[in-house]
Amino acid sequence: MFYSFTGKDANEVWSKATSELMSEQNITTPSRSGNNIELLHALIHIEDPTQRWTTNRVPPISIGFALAELIWILFGSKDAKVINYWNPSLPRFSGISDQYHGAYGYRIRHNFQIDQLERAYLTLKNNTDSRQVVISIWDPKIDSPDNQGQPVNQDIPCNICSLLKVRNNKLEWTQIMRSNDILLGLPYNLIQFTSLQEVIAGWLDVDIGSYTHYSDSLHLYCRDLEKVGISNDLKILNKDSLFLGKEECFYNVNEIYKRMMKIAYNDNISEDELYEISELDSNSSAYRNIMYIITLYVADRKGFKLLSERILKKCTNELFVFLWRNWKGEK
């Protein structure tokens, strides 16, 4: 079978794919993590990748974790302590370790002794028509199963590679995945790689084209069948833009990640310190809003109620505010 889901935004394609998958509940497939329902060979196509947020996912996505993970990826980190702060349950899925084996950002920027984001940028800047830009994540030397067919690590990357092309002055992006959990993975994968698409389009100063996402196994574990649902599609648009020049982009990414490290490695951070951390000195409202939501998560986790309210009022992205309140159950 082959499945195809096309839509204007992430909400539309996620809803279509989830509805199709849920209709297959009577057909289960075994796996090492339990039985699941599965769509083999699923193609997802998003016309406007800037509308990357699945606001209609039930349960709601964690906006704090999603944005922290995006910065963690862009920085090229594999530091488990940092990203675990924004998702304490992550070790249950990726294993207990100081460094995550399959960290996408590290794979993209360091694993192959080359910064693949930089090489992709330089290639497309100097040869716009190139068909050879492939950003590799899968490393067969360290990711392939052992001779008995068993995983060599708990954190084996689900993403294989990204294919980038510029056509009609637009950056087109194709993402290839070997395995994709429609509840726990897909909404975040769409955020991760459409964001990378917008970031590199900014470096190249070209428009953002469409986003195509191939999942060879799009699935949902049977234990999660009662958890997943589709809420009404609210038309709140993402108006923030990650479209910046390369130097300005990395100034923001590096500064935010430095502050994330300060938070993750300081258990006794005060309200005053956290408020100071939340104020990013940047001309980009998009990155300022990212910093606000990342620190809002921390303030909420520490029980700094007044500070949480203060930071939330500073965020100018209406969609981020909605997603935060939705996650907190404040609708």
Automatic annotation (TrEMBL):
Query: CDD domains per the record?
Result: TS_Pyrimidine_HMase
Q: Which SUPFAM superfamilies match?
A: Thymidylate synthase/dCMP hydroxymethylase (SSF55831)
Q: Does the keyword Methyltransferase apply?
A: yes
* Keyword Methyltransferase set for record: yes
Gene Ontology biological process terms in this record: dTMP biosynthetic process; methylation
Q: Where is the Thymidylate synthase/dCMP hydroxymethylase domain?
A: 63-228
Gene Ontology CC, one term: cytosol
Q: Which UniProt keywords apply?
A: Methyltransferase, Nucleotide biosynthesis, Transferase
Q: What is its EC number?
A: 2.1.1.45
Top class in the EC scheme: transferase
Q: Name one GO molecular function term.
A: thymidylate synthase activity
According to UniProt, the name of this protein is: thymidylate synthase
The species this protein belongs to is Amphibacillus marinus
The lineage, from the top, is: Bacteria, Bacillati, Bacillota, Bacilli, Bacillales
